[in-house]
Amino acid sequence: MATANLSKTSIRVPMAGIVTSSAPHVLETLLGSCVGISLWCQETHHGALAHAMLSESQGCLKQPGRFVDTAIPEMLDQLAKKGARRRAIVAKICGGSNMFKTSSSAHEVGRKNIDMACQLLRLQKIPILAQHVGGTNGRVIYQDLETGEIRVKIGLEFVATI
Predict the structure, then answer these.
(1) Contact 38, 91 (CB under 8 A)
(2) What are phi and psi of 59, to 5 degrees?
(3) How many whole angstroms separate alpha carbon 1 and alpha carbon 10?
(4) Rounded CA gap, 53 and 17, in Å?
(5) Catalytic residue check, 34
(6) Which pLDDT score, from 0 to 100, does residue 105 have?
(7) pLDDT digit string (tens) for 96-132?
């Protein structure tokens, strides 16, 4: 498993998946038009990372990590079960690239994913501390559960720490 910091164990989050863990682990995922939603408890250092493919589930509850609107409530439930304190949870959002060459805004999957994540986090009163979203390239993100930082890699280069 590749990791942003070789002294920490990296856990890969699959497409349409949600992984919840705690420090000193690092959660990682590869994103294109999908959105990576990071929730992290500043007090307990528990975190969750979802790799959501689409914005709305339209009633499909089978795989909550697949959709932004089911991923966020599921992440909050998992974090609560681990002992995270709701008042100390913060969010970061990554991904949502426009990977499909189209002029129709109806096909901008990435933008819809970003907008839905922001809307739902605001409704849940979870502060969004940072975003690394949009563009036309995929990215790999590494969420350090010790610090809450996310390192963003595009191609072979680390381009941001948020």
Answers:
(1) yes
(2) 90, -5
(3) 7
(4) 9
(5) yes
(6) 57
(7) 998 766 655 545 888 999 999 999 999 999 999 999 9
For CA atoms 133, 70, 149, 153, give the dihedral sign: negative
Contact 34, 15 (CB under 8 A): yes
- Pick the catalytic residue: 34, 41, 94, 118? 34
- Which residues, 6+ apart, have CB-to-CB distance to 20 below 8 Å? 46, 47, 48, 75, 78, 79, 82
Closest listed residue to residue 41, CA positions, set 91, 81, 5, 4 = 91
pTM for this entry = 0.91
The residue behind tokens 């528990």 is 46
**Which residue in the block uniquely carries the two structure tokens 């979802």?**
50
* Token pair in block for residue 82: 């681990």
The predicted-structure confidence for 30-85, as pLDDT tens digits, reads as follows 999 999 999 999 999 999 999 999 999 988 878 999 999 999 999 999 999 999 99
d(C-alpha 44, C-alpha 39), whole Å: 12
- Domain ranges in the chain are 10-135
- Taking 60 as the threshold, does the pLDDT of residue 4 lie above it? no
The topology under which CATH files domain 10-135 is 60s Ribosomal Protein L30; Chain: A; (3.30.1330)
